[in-house]
Amino acid sequence: LKKGSLLLRNADELVTCSGYSAKRGTEMSDLAIIRDGAVLVEDGIIRAGGETEEIASAAAGTSFESIDAHGKAVLPGFVDAHTHFLFGGYREEEFYWRLSGESYLDILQRGGGILSTVRATRNSPKQKLLEAGKRRLDSMLSFGVTTVEGKSGYGLDRDTEIKQLEVMKELDRGHPVDIVRTYLGAHTVPEEYKGRTDAYVDFIIEEVLPLVSKTGLAEFCDVFCERAVFSIEQSRRVLTRAKECGLGIKMHADEIHDLGGAELAAELGAVSADHLLHTSDSGIRALAQAGTVAILLPCTAFSLKEKFARARSMIDSGIAVALSTDMNPGSCFCESIPLVTALSVMYMDMTAEEVVSAITINAAAALNRADTVGSIDAGKKADFVILEHPSYKYMPYHTGVNSVERVIKEGVVVYDRLKAISY
Ligand SMILES: [Zn+2]
C-alpha cells in the first residue's frame, strides 16, 4: 500500500501521547498535548511534530500536501489490541438467549457459543472470510483504528486455524489497517476432543504451536483460561510451550471466574492479561509487579451484563491499562471505540486522559509495537485520527457517537467522513 508525505497543521490539540513504552499508573494522565500543533510526514513516517510555526518553517521548500486541522484535535491512530474479528456465521439468537437468562458457559456446554462459530468457520471458504473480514476492518477504520489484533480460535483443528491466520495475513497486505496475528487454538475444546481436554492440549503443543511459529503465521499465543474450559495448569502448559516456540503470550484471564489467571500471566511474563473482570487484589499486585499490560474490554462486560473490571484499582496500583473492543460474534459483537470510551469513563472511573493513553500507546505496548505506533513521535508510522471536535475530551462526552472525521494511515488519508455522505 502506498505511503504518503504531508504537512498536518493548525490542530487545536495535537495529542501526541508521546512515548515508546507502556504508560503505567499516573503516567497515563500525561498526553503531552501541543496547542496549535503540526506534524511533518515523509514517506509514511513522522519526521517531526511541534507547534505549527516551527514545523511549517521546517517544511518550507517541500511540496507536501497540506491538511488544515484548525478546530480539530489530532490523535495517534487507535490500536484495538484484542479482537476476534475473523469468523464465519453469526450468533444473533444467542444474544437473546443470554438476555432471557441463559449463561454464556451453559450455552457453550450444550454445543452453542464458540462451538457454533467453529462449525461455521470450518465451513467458510477463504474467499467468504476475506470479504467479511474486509468489511469489518473498514468499519474499524472508520472508528479510527489503524492497528488491530486478530485471533484465530474458530477452527481449533489445525487446518482451519491455519486458514484463519492466512486470511488475516492476506487482509493485512491489502487493507490499510495493520493486523497483528494471535494463535488462540486454546479458545475452547472442540467437539472431537469432548471430555479429553488434556489430549487436545497435547495436540496444540505438539502439532500446531510449532507450525504457526515456524511459518510466522502468528506472533502471539493466547489461552481462554476459564472454569470448564482450560484450567490454570493446562493454560500454563500451552503458554510455556508457546514461549519456547518464540511467541509472545497473552491470556483471557479471570473473565467469568477468578481462577488466578492474572497471577499466572504475571508469573509467565505475558505481554498482556485480558478481561480481568474478577481479578483479586493479589492478581492486581502481581500484574503491577510484572509490568504486564491489563487489556480491559468494557463492551464485553456491558454485553454480558457483568460487573466492569476494576480499572481504577489497577491504575492506582501502577498497572498500564489498555482498552480494546473484544469484537467477536458471541459475547461482544461490537467494534465501537465510542462505546469503549464512554463505558470506561462512566463505569470504570477512568479519566478521559487515561482512556486516550489506553487506546493508543498502551494498546500498542500490549502488541509489542510501542516503538512503531501508538504515539505521535518522530520515527513512528504516520497514523493519525482527526476528530471533528477541538479536543479529545469530546470523545466520551459525545456518548456512543463516532467523533472521527478523517483517518490517516502512513501519511495517506484513508477515511474521510465528509466525503461519505452525498445528497
Ligand atoms: Zn477475547
Describe the structure.
This protein is α/β, with parallel strands linked by helices and 423 residues long. It is built from 16 helices and 16 strands. Helix 5 crosses helix 6 (158-174) and helix 9 (261-268) runs parallel beside helix 10. It is globular, with a radius of gyration of 21 Å. The model has no long low-confidence stretch (mean pLDDT 96). Bound molecules: zinc ion (ZN). Zinc ion is lined by residues 82, 84, 252, 326.
Label this structure with key terms.
423 residues; alpha/beta; 16 helices; globular; binds zinc ion
What is the overall number of helices? 16
Q: In whole angstroms, how far apart are the ends?
A: 31 Å
* pLDDT averaged residue by residue: 96
In percent, how much strand structure appears in the residues? 15-25%
Multimerization status: single chain
List each distinct ligand once.
zinc ion
Beta-strand segment tally: 16
Structural class: alpha/beta
Rounded to an integer in angstroms, the radius of gyration calculated over CA atoms is: 21 Å
Spans of 5+ residues with little confidence (pLDDT < 50)?
A: none
Principal-axis shape: globular
Q: Quick one: biggest sheet?
A: 8 strands, mixed
Helix content: 25-40%
What does the secondary structure layout of this molecule look like, with pairings?
Layout: E1 6-15, E2 33-42, E3 45-51, H1 52-59, E4 65-68, E5 73-76, E6 78-80, H2 92-99, H3 104-109, H4 114-122, H5 126-142, E7 145-151, H6 158-174, E8 178-186, H7 197-214, E9 220-223, H8 232-244, E10 248-253, H9 261-268, E11 272-275, H10 281-290, E12 293-296, H11 298-304, H12 311-316, E13 321-323, H13 337-347, H14 352-359, H15 361-365, E14 384-387, H16 394-397, E15 404-409, E16 412-416
Parallel strand pairs: 1-4, 1-5, 6-7, 7-8, 8-9, 9-10, 10-11, 11-12, 12-13
Antiparallel strand pairs: 1-2, 2-3, 5-14, 14-15, 15-16
The structure holds zinc ion.
Zinc ion (ZN) binds near residues 82 and 252.
